[in-house]
Amino acid sequence: MPETPARRVVIAGASGLIGSALVDSLRGDGVEVTSLVRHAPNDVHEVQWLQDAEPLDPDVLAGTDAVVCLNGASIGRFPWTPSYKSTLLWSRITPTRTLATAIRALGDDAPALINASATGYYGSQPGAVLTEESPRGDGFLVDICVDWEREARAAGDRARVALLRTAPVVHERGVLKPLLLLTKLGVSGPIGRGTQVWPWITLDDEVRAIRHVIDSDLDGPVNLTGPTRATANDLGFALARRMNRPYVLRAPIWGVKLALGADATEALLTSDADVRPAVLENSGFTFAHRTVEDAVASAVPSHDGA
C-alpha cells in the first residue's frame, strides 16, 4: 500500500494519553502539528475551538494532510450517571460534527479525517471473531460509537474518512489504571468468570497504527487492537506475574455492577469481544507487541523480588 509521509497534521484531543504521544511521535519526525484546544492558545501551534457553538473556520484545516480527532471524555470514570452519559456522548459527537462540517466546506481540497471510535462498536458477541466487516452490537457504548462514526462520515464524499475502532490501551494511564492498585495490594482476581475476551493494544502500537492510517489510503473502519486473542484472566495474570502478586480473589458480577453501574460493567468488564485487526494486517502493518503478556511487560516495570 503506498504511503506518503504527512507534512502537516491537525489534531483535536492532543492532550490525552494517545493524543500527546501521537504529537510527540509526529513532531519527532519533523511533521508540523497544529493542536485544536479549548483554552486560550499558548503558541502558534494551537488554535482555539468549540467556543459557544461557533463553527471552526475551514481555513484552519486547509492545506493539511490529515485531521485526527481523538476527543472524548474518559469511559474509565465511574459511575456512568445520566449526566456523565450525556458528557460521554457530547464530547465525541460535537467535536466530530464540527470537524466534519469544516472539512466538507473545503470541497476538493478536503484533508483526510482520521476519527476516533472504539472496539465498543461490536458490543459483546461471545464466540464470534470480529473484523471490520462484522455487525454492530447492542448497548449504550455501541450506540455512542454508531452515532460517532455517522458524524465522521458526514465529512463528505470528497474526504477520506478512517474510523479508528481503538481497543483499551494497556498503559498505566489506560486500562491498567484501576487494576494496578488492586494488584499491588494483592486483591486482584477474575472479574466474573474471567474468560471473557478483551481487545487490547499498547500505546506504542496505537500511535504507530494511527500514523500508518494517516500515511496510507485506508478508509472506513480500522480495528486498532492487538493481533492475538486475550481474556480478562490473561491480562490479569500477566499483570500479577509482572508485579509478583497473587491473582485469586474473584469479583462477583453483582458487586461490580453495584460499584460501577450496569452499563459500565456490561460495556467494559463483562463484554466478550474477540476483535481482530484485519484491515491493519492486510495493509502490511506490523505490531511491536503481539501478545498481551508483551503489552504488560512494555507498560509495567518488573517487580521481581519485590
Short description:
The chain is 37% helix and 14% strand.
What's the count of strands? 11
Strand content: 5-15%
The biggest sheet, with number of strands, parallel, antiparallel or mixed sense and barrel status, is: 7 strands, parallel
The CATH class: Alpha Beta
Whole-angstrom Rg: 19 Å
Describe the structure.
With 306 residues, the protein is of the alpha/beta class. The chain has a single domain, classed as Rossmann fold (3-Layer(aba) Sandwich), CATH 3.40.50. It has helices spanning 17-28, 82-105, 140-153, 177-184, 203-215, 232-243, 253-260, 262-269, 278-282, 292-299; strands spanning 8-12, 32-37, 46-48, 66-69, 112-118, 129-130, 161-166, 169-170, 201-202, 220-224, 274-275. It is globular and about 55 Å long. The model has no long low-confidence stretch (mean pLDDT 94).
Could you give the topology of this structure?
Blueprint: E1 8-12, H1 17-28, E2 32-37, E3 46-48, E4 66-69, H2 82-105, E5 112-118, E6 129-130, H3 140-153, E7 161-166, E8 169-170, H4 177-184, E9 201-202, H5 203-215, E10 220-224, H6 232-243, H7 253-260, H8 262-269, E11 274-275, H9 278-282, H10 292-299
Parallel strand pairs: 1-2, 1-4, 2-3, 4-5, 5-7, 6-11, 7-10, 8-9
Helix pairs in contact: 1-5, 2-3, 4-6, 6-10, 7-8
